[in-house]
Amino acid sequence: MMLTIVGAVLLAVGLYAAWRLAPQRPDVPAEGWFPDPASTAARRRLWDGQAWTAHVADGGEPANRGHHFRGRSRGSWMGILGAAVVVLVAGVAAYRATENVHVMAVTSFLAMTLVCWAFYGFVERQLALRDVVGLGQVAAVAVATAGATFLVAMNLNNLTGSIGGISLATTLVGLTEESTKLLVPIVLFLLGTYRNPRAGVGIGLAAGFGFAIAETTLYAYQTAAASGPSFCGAETPAVTTGMVVSAQVARIFGVSPFHWLFTGIAVAIAWRAWHLYGRKGTPAALGGILLVMVVHSLNDTSATLGCGEPVVQSLLALARYALVIGMYLVFKAWARKHTPPQLIGAVSTGWTPKHLGEQKVSPDGSPATGAPAREPADD
User: Which residues does the UniProt record annotate as the domain DUF2510 (predicted)?
Assistant: First the structure.
Protein backbone atom coordinates (compact mmCIF):
# COMPACT_ATOMS: atom_id res chain seq x y z
CA MET A 1 0.00 0.00 0.00
CA MET A 2 2.80 2.39 0.92
CA LEU A 3 4.54 1.80 -2.44
CA THR A 4 1.29 2.55 -4.24
CA ILE A 5 0.92 5.89 -2.43
CA VAL A 6 4.56 6.79 -3.04
CA GLY A 7 4.14 5.82 -6.69
CA ALA A 8 1.09 8.04 -7.14
CA VAL A 9 2.89 11.02 -5.60
CA LEU A 10 6.04 10.54 -7.68
CA LEU A 11 4.01 10.11 -10.86
CA ALA A 12 2.04 13.31 -10.26
CA VAL A 13 5.05 15.41 -9.21
CA GLY A 14 7.26 14.10 -12.02
CA LEU A 15 4.63 14.63 -14.71
CA TYR A 16 3.93 18.16 -13.54
CA ALA A 17 7.64 19.00 -13.48
CA ALA A 18 8.20 17.48 -16.94
CA TRP A 19 5.28 19.49 -18.31
CA ARG A 20 6.44 22.75 -16.72
CA LEU A 21 10.06 22.27 -17.77
CA ALA A 22 9.23 21.47 -21.40
CA PRO A 23 11.39 23.71 -23.62
CA GLN A 24 10.10 25.75 -26.49
CA ARG A 25 10.41 23.95 -29.78
CA PRO A 26 13.77 24.83 -31.34
CA ASP A 27 13.60 26.62 -34.65
CA VAL A 28 14.11 24.23 -37.54
CA PRO A 29 15.25 25.83 -40.80
CA ALA A 30 12.65 26.07 -43.52
CA GLU A 31 13.19 24.49 -46.91
CA GLY A 32 16.43 25.66 -48.46
CA TRP A 33 19.91 24.83 -49.66
CA PHE A 34 22.69 24.15 -47.16
CA PRO A 35 26.22 22.71 -47.23
CA ASP A 36 25.93 19.02 -48.06
CA PRO A 37 26.39 17.01 -44.82
CA ALA A 38 26.90 13.78 -46.79
CA SER A 39 29.93 15.00 -48.71
CA THR A 40 33.30 16.61 -48.14
CA ALA A 41 32.97 18.49 -51.44
CA ALA A 42 32.01 22.15 -51.74
CA ARG A 43 28.39 21.68 -52.72
CA ARG A 44 24.90 22.19 -51.39
CA ARG A 45 22.00 19.84 -50.65
CA LEU A 46 18.29 20.60 -50.39
CA TRP A 47 16.71 20.45 -46.94
CA ASP A 48 12.91 20.19 -47.32
CA GLY A 49 12.08 21.46 -43.84
CA GLN A 50 12.00 17.99 -42.28
CA ALA A 51 14.66 15.88 -43.96
CA TRP A 52 17.56 16.00 -46.38
CA THR A 53 16.66 15.20 -49.98
CA ALA A 54 18.70 13.71 -52.82
CA HIS A 55 18.90 17.04 -54.68
CA VAL A 56 22.41 18.53 -54.76
CA ALA A 57 23.98 21.52 -56.48
CA ASP A 58 27.56 22.66 -56.92
CA GLY A 59 28.93 25.63 -55.03
CA GLY A 60 29.08 26.86 -51.47
CA GLU A 61 31.31 25.78 -48.62
CA PRO A 62 32.00 22.20 -47.49
CA ALA A 63 29.89 21.13 -44.55
CA ASN A 64 31.28 20.73 -41.07
CA ARG A 65 30.58 17.01 -40.90
CA GLY A 66 30.47 16.55 -37.16
CA HIS A 67 33.03 15.59 -34.56
CA HIS A 68 34.71 12.32 -33.82
CA PHE A 69 33.55 11.42 -30.35
CA ARG A 70 36.28 11.77 -27.77
CA GLY A 71 35.20 11.22 -24.20
CA ARG A 72 37.99 13.32 -22.73
CA SER A 73 37.00 16.44 -24.68
CA ARG A 74 33.73 16.68 -22.77
CA GLY A 75 34.18 13.78 -20.46
CA SER A 76 31.86 14.60 -17.57
CA TRP A 77 29.97 11.39 -18.30
CA MET A 78 33.14 9.40 -17.70
CA GLY A 79 33.65 11.07 -14.33
CA ILE A 80 30.04 10.32 -13.39
CA LEU A 81 30.48 6.68 -14.36
CA GLY A 82 33.62 6.55 -12.24
CA ALA A 83 31.66 8.00 -9.33
CA ALA A 84 29.08 5.22 -9.76
CA VAL A 85 31.82 2.61 -9.43
CA VAL A 86 33.21 4.32 -6.32
CA VAL A 87 29.74 4.48 -4.73
CA LEU A 88 29.14 0.83 -5.54
CA VAL A 89 32.46 -0.33 -4.11
CA ALA A 90 31.99 1.70 -0.92
CA GLY A 91 28.38 0.59 -0.54
CA VAL A 92 29.21 -3.07 -1.05
CA ALA A 93 31.94 -2.84 1.59
CA ALA A 94 29.49 -1.25 4.02
CA TYR A 95 26.84 -3.87 3.24
CA ARG A 96 29.25 -6.75 3.78
CA ALA A 97 30.29 -5.23 7.10
CA THR A 98 26.76 -4.56 8.38
CA GLU A 99 24.63 -7.08 6.42
CA ASN A 100 21.97 -4.38 6.45
CA VAL A 101 19.89 -4.68 3.28
CA HIS A 102 18.94 -1.00 3.47
CA VAL A 103 22.58 -0.16 2.83
CA MET A 104 22.56 -2.27 -0.33
CA ALA A 105 19.29 -0.71 -1.47
CA VAL A 106 20.60 2.84 -1.05
CA THR A 107 23.85 1.86 -2.77
CA SER A 108 21.91 0.35 -5.67
CA PHE A 109 19.77 3.48 -5.97
CA LEU A 110 22.75 5.84 -6.03
CA ALA A 111 24.88 3.70 -8.35
CA MET A 112 22.02 3.10 -10.79
CA THR A 113 21.17 6.81 -10.84
CA LEU A 114 24.78 7.74 -11.60
CA VAL A 115 25.05 5.10 -14.34
CA CYS A 116 21.89 6.47 -15.98
CA TRP A 117 23.21 10.02 -15.69
CA ALA A 118 26.50 9.00 -17.29
CA PHE A 119 24.76 7.19 -20.14
CA TYR A 120 22.57 10.19 -20.90
CA GLY A 121 25.65 12.40 -20.92
CA PHE A 122 27.17 10.07 -23.49
CA VAL A 123 24.04 10.07 -25.67
CA GLU A 124 23.55 13.83 -25.37
CA ARG A 125 27.12 14.32 -26.53
CA GLN A 126 26.47 12.11 -29.55
CA LEU A 127 23.11 13.58 -30.58
CA ALA A 128 23.22 17.16 -29.25
CA LEU A 129 19.90 16.74 -27.43
CA ARG A 130 20.29 19.49 -24.85
CA ASP A 131 18.08 21.93 -26.74
CA VAL A 132 15.13 19.51 -26.79
CA VAL A 133 15.54 17.41 -23.61
CA GLY A 134 17.89 18.68 -20.92
CA LEU A 135 18.98 17.02 -17.69
CA GLY A 136 16.14 18.62 -15.70
CA GLN A 137 13.51 17.21 -18.05
CA VAL A 138 15.21 13.81 -17.97
CA ALA A 139 15.09 13.80 -14.17
CA ALA A 140 11.40 14.78 -14.15
CA VAL A 141 10.41 12.03 -16.60
CA ALA A 142 12.49 9.51 -14.65
CA VAL A 143 10.78 10.45 -11.37
CA ALA A 144 7.34 10.16 -12.97
CA THR A 145 8.17 6.76 -14.47
CA ALA A 146 9.58 5.51 -11.17
CA GLY A 147 6.21 6.44 -9.67
CA ALA A 148 4.39 4.58 -12.43
CA THR A 149 6.61 1.58 -11.72
CA PHE A 150 5.59 1.49 -8.06
CA LEU A 151 1.98 2.16 -8.95
CA VAL A 152 1.46 -0.18 -11.90
CA ALA A 153 4.25 -2.56 -12.86
CA MET A 154 5.05 -3.97 -9.44
CA ASN A 155 1.38 -4.80 -8.88
CA LEU A 156 0.95 -6.40 -12.31
CA ASN A 157 4.14 -8.41 -11.87
CA ASN A 158 2.53 -10.12 -8.87
CA LEU A 159 -0.06 -11.80 -11.09
CA THR A 160 -0.57 -15.48 -10.36
CA GLY A 161 -1.23 -18.33 -12.77
CA SER A 162 0.73 -19.69 -15.69
CA ILE A 163 0.66 -20.16 -19.46
CA GLY A 164 2.39 -23.19 -20.92
CA GLY A 165 4.25 -23.78 -17.68
CA ILE A 166 5.56 -20.20 -17.57
CA SER A 167 4.20 -17.86 -14.92
CA LEU A 168 1.66 -15.30 -16.11
CA ALA A 169 3.76 -12.45 -14.75
CA THR A 170 6.81 -13.63 -16.72
CA THR A 171 4.81 -14.22 -19.91
CA LEU A 172 3.29 -10.73 -19.83
CA VAL A 173 6.35 -8.92 -18.51
CA GLY A 174 7.07 -7.20 -21.82
CA LEU A 175 3.52 -5.89 -22.03
CA THR A 176 3.24 -4.77 -18.41
CA GLU A 177 6.67 -3.22 -17.98
CA GLU A 178 6.91 -1.55 -21.39
CA SER A 179 3.36 -0.19 -21.02
CA THR A 180 4.37 1.25 -17.67
CA LYS A 181 7.45 2.90 -19.15
CA LEU A 182 5.45 4.26 -22.08
CA LEU A 183 2.81 5.84 -19.84
CA VAL A 184 4.67 9.10 -19.14
CA PRO A 185 5.93 9.65 -22.72
CA ILE A 186 2.42 9.13 -24.11
CA VAL A 187 0.91 11.57 -21.60
CA LEU A 188 3.54 14.19 -22.50
CA PHE A 189 2.83 13.65 -26.18
CA LEU A 190 -0.91 14.10 -25.64
CA LEU A 191 -0.22 17.27 -23.65
CA GLY A 192 1.52 18.67 -26.70
CA THR A 193 4.91 19.12 -25.05
CA TYR A 194 8.38 18.36 -26.44
CA ARG A 195 7.17 18.89 -30.00
CA ASN A 196 10.35 17.90 -31.72
CA PRO A 197 11.05 14.61 -33.53
CA ARG A 198 14.44 14.33 -31.82
CA ALA A 199 12.96 14.59 -28.32
CA GLY A 200 11.72 11.00 -28.37
CA VAL A 201 15.21 9.63 -27.76
CA GLY A 202 15.64 11.64 -24.57
CA ILE A 203 12.09 11.08 -23.31
CA GLY A 204 12.32 7.33 -23.96
CA LEU A 205 15.68 6.97 -22.27
CA ALA A 206 14.48 8.99 -19.28
CA ALA A 207 11.46 6.71 -18.87
CA GLY A 208 13.76 3.70 -19.01
CA PHE A 209 16.04 5.29 -16.42
CA GLY A 210 13.16 5.82 -13.99
CA PHE A 211 12.03 2.22 -14.30
CA ALA A 212 15.57 0.85 -13.97
CA ILE A 213 16.32 2.89 -10.85
CA ALA A 214 13.05 1.91 -9.15
CA GLU A 215 13.30 -1.76 -10.05
CA THR A 216 16.98 -2.08 -9.14
CA THR A 217 16.37 -0.51 -5.74
CA LEU A 218 13.45 -2.83 -5.00
CA TYR A 219 15.38 -5.88 -6.19
CA ALA A 220 17.93 -5.32 -3.44
CA TYR A 221 15.20 -6.18 -0.93
CA GLN A 222 13.66 -8.95 -3.03
CA THR A 223 16.99 -10.69 -3.66
CA ALA A 224 17.90 -10.60 0.02
CA ALA A 225 14.53 -12.16 0.89
CA ALA A 226 14.51 -14.70 -1.97
CA SER A 227 13.23 -18.17 -1.17
CA GLY A 228 11.38 -21.01 -2.84
CA PRO A 229 11.93 -22.41 -6.34
CA SER A 230 14.01 -20.60 -8.94
CA PHE A 231 13.02 -20.04 -12.59
CA CYS A 232 13.85 -23.63 -13.43
CA GLY A 233 12.19 -25.18 -10.40
CA ALA A 234 15.30 -25.82 -8.32
CA GLU A 235 15.18 -24.75 -4.71
CA THR A 236 16.85 -21.40 -4.11
CA PRO A 237 19.90 -21.83 -1.85
CA ALA A 238 20.27 -19.77 1.30
CA VAL A 239 20.92 -16.19 0.28
CA THR A 240 24.30 -14.74 1.24
CA THR A 241 25.59 -11.18 1.08
CA GLY A 242 27.80 -12.24 -1.81
CA MET A 243 24.79 -13.45 -3.79
CA VAL A 244 22.95 -10.17 -3.20
CA VAL A 245 25.98 -8.15 -4.25
CA SER A 246 26.55 -10.23 -7.40
CA ALA A 247 22.88 -9.98 -8.37
CA GLN A 248 22.79 -6.21 -7.91
CA VAL A 249 26.03 -5.56 -9.77
CA ALA A 250 24.79 -7.71 -12.66
CA ARG A 251 21.50 -5.83 -12.66
CA ILE A 252 23.09 -2.38 -12.61
CA PHE A 253 25.57 -3.00 -15.41
CA GLY A 254 24.03 -5.88 -17.35
CA VAL A 255 20.25 -6.12 -17.00
CA SER A 256 18.96 -2.61 -16.37
CA PRO A 257 20.53 -1.04 -19.48
CA PHE A 258 18.09 -3.10 -21.54
CA HIS A 259 15.24 -1.20 -19.91
CA TRP A 260 16.36 2.13 -21.25
CA LEU A 261 17.46 0.67 -24.57
CA PHE A 262 14.07 -1.00 -25.12
CA THR A 263 12.10 2.09 -24.18
CA GLY A 264 14.50 4.54 -25.78
CA ILE A 265 14.20 2.82 -29.15
CA ALA A 266 10.42 2.36 -28.92
CA VAL A 267 9.69 5.96 -27.94
CA ALA A 268 12.24 7.35 -30.40
CA ILE A 269 10.55 5.50 -33.27
CA ALA A 270 7.02 6.42 -32.17
CA TRP A 271 7.87 10.05 -31.43
CA ARG A 272 9.55 10.58 -34.78
CA ALA A 273 6.81 8.77 -36.71
CA TRP A 274 3.97 10.71 -35.08
CA HIS A 275 5.66 14.10 -35.30
CA LEU A 276 6.81 13.73 -38.89
CA TYR A 277 3.88 11.85 -40.41
CA GLY A 278 0.93 12.35 -38.05
CA ARG A 279 -1.65 9.57 -38.20
CA LYS A 280 0.14 8.00 -41.15
CA GLY A 281 3.03 7.28 -38.82
CA THR A 282 0.89 5.25 -36.40
CA PRO A 283 1.64 1.83 -37.97
CA ALA A 284 5.40 2.44 -37.69
CA ALA A 285 5.01 3.75 -34.14
CA LEU A 286 2.89 0.84 -32.95
CA GLY A 287 5.08 -1.65 -34.80
CA GLY A 288 8.18 -0.42 -33.00
CA ILE A 289 6.42 -0.51 -29.62
CA LEU A 290 5.02 -4.01 -30.14
CA LEU A 291 8.35 -5.36 -31.33
CA VAL A 292 10.06 -3.99 -28.23
CA MET A 293 7.40 -5.63 -26.05
CA VAL A 294 8.04 -8.97 -27.77
CA VAL A 295 11.80 -8.66 -27.33
CA HIS A 296 11.37 -7.72 -23.67
CA SER A 297 9.12 -10.71 -23.03
CA LEU A 298 11.57 -12.96 -24.87
CA ASN A 299 14.31 -11.63 -22.63
CA ASP A 300 12.48 -12.86 -19.51
CA THR A 301 10.74 -16.01 -20.74
CA SER A 302 14.01 -17.35 -22.18
CA ALA A 303 15.17 -18.00 -18.62
CA THR A 304 12.35 -20.54 -18.26
CA LEU A 305 12.17 -21.82 -21.84
CA GLY A 306 15.86 -22.64 -21.81
CA CYS A 307 15.97 -24.51 -18.50
CA GLY A 308 18.54 -27.26 -18.86
CA GLU A 309 18.99 -26.39 -22.54
CA PRO A 310 22.03 -24.12 -22.95
CA VAL A 311 21.74 -24.23 -26.76
CA VAL A 312 18.14 -23.01 -26.58
CA GLN A 313 19.10 -20.23 -24.17
CA SER A 314 21.95 -19.17 -26.45
CA LEU A 315 19.70 -19.06 -29.51
CA LEU A 316 17.07 -17.04 -27.67
CA ALA A 317 19.73 -14.63 -26.44
CA LEU A 318 21.08 -14.20 -29.96
CA ALA A 319 17.55 -13.59 -31.25
CA ARG A 320 16.81 -10.79 -28.81
CA TYR A 321 20.21 -9.15 -29.29
CA ALA A 322 19.77 -9.31 -33.06
CA LEU A 323 16.33 -7.71 -32.81
CA VAL A 324 17.55 -4.88 -30.58
CA ILE A 325 20.60 -4.19 -32.75
CA GLY A 326 18.50 -4.37 -35.91
CA MET A 327 15.94 -1.90 -34.57
CA TYR A 328 18.71 0.45 -33.49
CA LEU A 329 20.41 0.38 -36.90
CA VAL A 330 17.14 0.93 -38.76
CA PHE A 331 16.25 3.84 -36.49
CA LYS A 332 19.72 5.35 -36.85
CA ALA A 333 19.61 5.20 -40.65
CA TRP A 334 16.18 6.83 -40.57
CA ALA A 335 17.02 9.47 -37.95
CA ARG A 336 20.21 10.66 -39.65
CA LYS A 337 18.20 11.97 -42.60
CA HIS A 338 16.35 14.30 -40.23
CA THR A 339 19.35 15.86 -38.47
CA PRO A 340 18.63 19.57 -39.05
CA PRO A 341 21.21 21.82 -40.73
CA GLN A 342 22.04 23.79 -37.58
CA LEU A 343 23.15 20.59 -35.82
CA ILE A 344 25.48 19.35 -38.54
CA GLY A 345 28.84 19.63 -36.84
CA ALA A 346 27.31 19.41 -33.35
CA VAL A 347 26.34 15.75 -33.54
CA SER A 348 28.97 13.04 -33.81
CA THR A 349 30.04 11.74 -37.20
CA GLY A 350 28.09 8.55 -36.53
CA TRP A 351 24.85 10.56 -36.65
CA THR A 352 25.78 12.83 -39.56
CA PRO A 353 23.52 12.18 -42.60
CA LYS A 354 24.92 9.61 -45.02
CA HIS A 355 23.76 7.70 -48.11
CA LEU A 356 21.27 10.38 -49.13
CA GLY A 357 21.53 9.79 -52.85
CA GLU A 358 22.43 12.35 -55.49
CA GLN A 359 20.21 14.07 -58.01
CA LYS A 360 22.11 17.03 -59.42
CA VAL A 361 20.53 20.36 -60.16
CA SER A 362 22.36 22.62 -62.60
CA PRO A 363 23.46 26.11 -61.51
CA ASP A 364 20.56 27.76 -63.38
CA GLY A 365 18.06 25.73 -61.36
CA SER A 366 17.03 23.31 -64.13
CA PRO A 367 17.01 19.62 -63.23
CA ALA A 368 20.01 17.72 -64.52
CA THR A 369 18.43 14.29 -64.12
CA GLY A 370 14.72 14.87 -63.98
CA ALA A 371 14.64 16.46 -60.54
CA PRO A 372 12.09 19.21 -59.89
CA ALA A 373 13.50 22.61 -60.77
CA ARG A 374 14.58 24.40 -57.61
CA GLU A 375 16.80 27.45 -57.58
CA PRO A 376 19.66 27.07 -55.10
CA ALA A 377 19.58 30.02 -52.75
CA ASP A 378 22.68 31.85 -51.64
CA ASP A 379 24.09 30.71 -48.30
Answer: 32-63
